[in-house]
């Protein structure tokens, strides 16, 4: 028997947040419960307006919920007095889409900022700031002002600042949404490093599946204030349940656009049901399916589309095959595929929506 | 040079020193400007900060308090300065013991300027990026520390811009206060220059006030340039 040493570092219980506008009530977050274990990288994905930003602000009570409980490190933050809450917030670093650096302070000054109230000598502070700048790779820019930096560099400064208090948790609020793809990858790699080397639990919110795919271990999908689906990255990516989740997964695998292209090209005939989708998870990705189909059943498999990626060290592959052979052989091949390690699904021509 | 001055500015030369001379008037104008600037500055800064933090989006929102203060600031800003001078006469006497002379002008100058500056401070601090304020809250800073480490630090260039503007408008008010018994260059221009038809005195009074305005503006611009990154 293995002992489960995972501790729940963040627990939100039935959290709801409403905003009152002049003529109506906006339910930004409705009955959300989620648990993040220590050391996890937890992603929350959703379109803008889904309530993600409001939800993560509940974790450090920048946004006090109207209902529900907020537990961090086994303590109910809702019961904390202001001074205790401020101390608890120092344990939760936060980075933002627009970096939120102070323009009046240098890079060094911005990273030093959270340390100003600690009982530290100036020399100790300098040493700590230099260490943090080294970690994010910006030692040479210490005396620059934020206005002289690129977006990616600004976010690195923000990460160094967020880490200054040695937090256990780091919240990333759309931190890569204002950055170009290459810089996004660099920043996500830095966050993955922070998670691995410093053992900091990270909660990421984003609208980009690619960001989730790159570093998250667990994912929650948020829509109109509710969490509609949550699970491990492999579960969500391999077996999305909700239509919105499928849409996000699609946006990353590009499967739907590929199907649309195939339909438009007239490559397949509507009456033949010989277009199939294969999904590989883990080791099954190594089986030589296409070769087997031909050798065993004389079925020619034309690969129309394929996408293979590594998620958390596991291979996830999607392939669209157009099967060519006698009906009998195709049926036999179909039986074979269903018994294999691979998930197989027939694509109905009429179900492909072309806009 | 002195011949030139005697020819073109005879009354200025005659009135330069002495009890009611230019030197005394310059001193009085500077005294009124800077003493009231210090008090109105502190008062306006405090009121402006309170307006920013008690606003609905502020760090310590308090709707009722904000509304009352907001209305008061508007009320005092709406009273024409010449009328304010007269209306608060008894209050002035109570505070500084006299209603004439440069010291008697201080109270109305402060009461007239502080609400104006409070509004300027509010506008300057509202400009501070709300995201930076949120980041500071997320770091666990207390409201007091957010005020002086974030609002005042980030808003400093804008505050100096507002301060310069307020100081220049204050110099204008000292001239008006001077004309009704406060002394200074305003008194010089009206009581001596205008009423005795000594146009050279009026002209030089104006030039001296303009020099003061340009110096203040120049110092303000220089400081802003130094501070903005």
UniProtKB/TrEMBL annotation, chain A:
<dbReference type="InterPro" id="IPR045865">
    <property type="entry name" value="ACT-like_dom_sf"/>
</dbReference>
<dbReference type="Pfam" id="PF09383">
    <property type="entry name" value="NIL"/>
</dbReference>
<keyword id="KW-0547">Nucleotide-binding</keyword>
<keyword id="KW-1003">Cell membrane</keyword>
<dbReference type="InterPro" id="IPR027417">
    <property type="entry name" value="P-loop_NTPase"/>
</dbReference>
<dbReference type="InterPro" id="IPR018449">
    <property type="entry name" value="NIL_domain"/>
</dbReference>
<dbReference type="GO" id="GO:0016887">
    <property type="term" value="F:ATP hydrolysis activity"/>
</dbReference>
<dbReference type="GO" id="GO:0005524">
    <property type="term" value="F:ATP binding"/>
</dbReference>
<keyword id="KW-0472">Membrane</keyword>
<dbReference type="InterPro" id="IPR017871">
    <property type="entry name" value="ABC_transporter-like_CS"/>
</dbReference>
<dbReference type="Pfam" id="PF00005">
    <property type="entry name" value="ABC_tran"/>
</dbReference>
<dbReference type="InterPro" id="IPR003593">
    <property type="entry name" value="AAA+_ATPase"/>
</dbReference>
<dbReference type="InterPro" id="IPR041701">
    <property type="entry name" value="MetN_ABC"/>
</dbReference>
<feature type="domain" description="ABC transporter">
    <location>
        <begin position="10"/>
        <end position="249"/>
    </location>
</feature>
<keyword id="KW-0067">ATP-binding</keyword>
<protein>
    <submittedName>
        <fullName>ABC transporter, ATP-binding protein</fullName>
    </submittedName>
</protein>
<dbReference type="GO" id="GO:0006865">
    <property type="term" value="P:amino acid transport"/>
</dbReference>
<keyword id="KW-0029">Amino-acid transport</keyword>
<keyword id="KW-1278">Translocase</keyword>
<dbReference type="InterPro" id="IPR050086">
    <property type="entry name" value="MetN_ABC_transporter-like"/>
</dbReference>
<dbReference type="InterPro" id="IPR003439">
    <property type="entry name" value="ABC_transporter-like_ATP-bd"/>
</dbReference>
<keyword id="KW-0813">Transport</keyword>
UniProtKB/TrEMBL annotation, chain B:
<feature type="transmembrane region" description="Helical">
    <location>
        <begin position="159"/>
        <end position="181"/>
    </location>
</feature>
<dbReference type="Pfam" id="PF00528">
    <property type="entry name" value="BPD_transp_1"/>
</dbReference>
<dbReference type="InterPro" id="IPR000515">
    <property type="entry name" value="MetI-like"/>
</dbReference>
<feature type="transmembrane region" description="Helical">
    <location>
        <begin position="75"/>
        <end position="94"/>
    </location>
</feature>
<keyword id="KW-0472">Membrane</keyword>
<protein>
    <submittedName>
        <fullName>Putative D-methionine transport system permease protein metI</fullName>
    </submittedName>
</protein>
<keyword id="KW-1133">Transmembrane helix</keyword>
<keyword id="KW-0812">Transmembrane</keyword>
<dbReference type="InterPro" id="IPR051322">
    <property type="entry name" value="AA_ABC_Transporter_Permease"/>
</dbReference>
<feature type="transmembrane region" description="Helical">
    <location>
        <begin position="100"/>
        <end position="118"/>
    </location>
</feature>
<dbReference type="GO" id="GO:0048473">
    <property type="term" value="P:D-methionine transmembrane transport"/>
</dbReference>
<comment type="similarity">
    <text>Belongs to the binding-protein-dependent transport system permease family. CysTW subfamily.</text>
</comment>
<dbReference type="GO" id="GO:0005886">
    <property type="term" value="C:plasma membrane"/>
</dbReference>
<feature type="transmembrane region" description="Helical">
    <location>
        <begin position="201"/>
        <end position="224"/>
    </location>
</feature>
<feature type="transmembrane region" description="Helical">
    <location>
        <begin position="30"/>
        <end position="54"/>
    </location>
</feature>
<dbReference type="InterPro" id="IPR035906">
    <property type="entry name" value="MetI-like_sf"/>
</dbReference>
<keyword id="KW-1003">Cell membrane</keyword>
<keyword id="KW-0813">Transport</keyword>
<feature type="domain" description="ABC transmembrane type-1">
    <location>
        <begin position="26"/>
        <end position="220"/>
    </location>
</feature>
């Amino acid at each position: 028997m293995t002992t489960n040493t995972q501790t729940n570092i963040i627990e939100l219980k039935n959290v709801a947040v409403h905003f009152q506008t002049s003529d109506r009530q906006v339910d930004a977050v409705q009955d959300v419960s989620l648990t993040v274990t220590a050391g996890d990288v937890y992603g929350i994905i959703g379109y803008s307006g889904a309530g993600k930003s409001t939800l993560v602000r509940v974790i450090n009570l920048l946004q006090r919920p109207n209902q529900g409980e907020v537990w961090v490190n086994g303590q109910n933050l809702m019961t904390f007095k202001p001074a205790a809450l401020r101390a608890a917030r120092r344990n939760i670093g936060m980075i933002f889409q627009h970096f939120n650096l102070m323009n009046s302070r240098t890079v060094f000054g911005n990273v030093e900022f959270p340390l100003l109230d600690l009982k530290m000598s100036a020399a100790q502070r300098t040493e700590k700031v230099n260490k943090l700048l080294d970690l994010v790779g910006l030692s040479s820019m210490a005396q620059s002002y934020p206005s002289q930096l690129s977006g990616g560099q600004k976010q690195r400064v923000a990460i160094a600042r967020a880490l200054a208090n040695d937090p256990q948790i780091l919240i990333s609020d759309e931190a890569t949404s204002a950055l170009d793809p290459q810089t996004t990858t660099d920043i996500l790699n830095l966050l993955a490093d922070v998670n691995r080397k410093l053992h900091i639990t990270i909660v990421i919110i984003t609208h980009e599946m690619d960001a989730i795919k790159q570093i998250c271990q667990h994912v929650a999908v948020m829509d109109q204030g509710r969490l509609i689906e949550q699970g491990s990255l492999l579960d969500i990516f391999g077996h999305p349940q909700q239509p919105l989740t499928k849409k996000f997964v699609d946006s990353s695998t590009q499967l739907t656009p590929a199907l649309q292209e195939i339909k438009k090209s007239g490559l397949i005939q509507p009456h033949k049901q010989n277009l199939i989708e294969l999904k590989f998870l883990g080791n099954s990705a190594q089986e030589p399916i296409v070769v087997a189909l031909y050798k065993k059943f004389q079925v020619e498999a034309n690969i129309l589309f394929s996408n293979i990626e590594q998620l958390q060290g596991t291979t996830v592959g999607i392939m669209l095959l157009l099967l060519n052979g006698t009906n009998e052989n195709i049926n036999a091949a179909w039986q074979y595929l269903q018994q294999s390690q691979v998930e197989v699904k027939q694509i109905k021509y009429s179900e492909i929506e072309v806009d | 040079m002195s011949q030139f001055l005697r020819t073109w500015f005879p009354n200025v030369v005659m009135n330069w020193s002495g009890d009611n001379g230019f030197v005394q008037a310059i001193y009085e104008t500077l005294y009124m400007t800077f003493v009231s600037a210090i008090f109105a500055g502190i008062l306006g800064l405090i009121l402006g900060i309170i307006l920013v933090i008690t606003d609905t989006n502020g760090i310590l929102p308090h709707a009722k308090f904000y509304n009352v203060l907001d209305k008061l600031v508007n009320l005092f800003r709406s009273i024409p300065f010449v009328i304010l001078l007269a209306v608060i006469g008894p209050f002035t006497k109570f505070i500084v013991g006299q209603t004439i002379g440069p010291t008697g002008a201080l109270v109305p100058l402060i009461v007239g300027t502080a609400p104006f500056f409070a509004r300027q401070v509010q506008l300057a601090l509202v400009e501070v990026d709300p995201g930076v304020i949120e980041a500071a809250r997320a770091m666990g800073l207390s409201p007091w520390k957010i005020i002086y480490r974030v609002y005042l630090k980030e808003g400093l260039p804008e505050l100096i811009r507002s301060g310069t503007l307020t100081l220049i408008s204050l110099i204008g008010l000292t001239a008006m206060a001077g004309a009704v018994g406060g002394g200074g260059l305003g008194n010089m221009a009206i009581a001596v220059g205008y009423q005795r038809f000594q146009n050279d005195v009026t002209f030089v009074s104006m030039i001296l006030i303009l020099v003061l305005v340009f110096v203040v503006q120049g110092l303000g611009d220089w400081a802003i340039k130094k501070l903005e990154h």
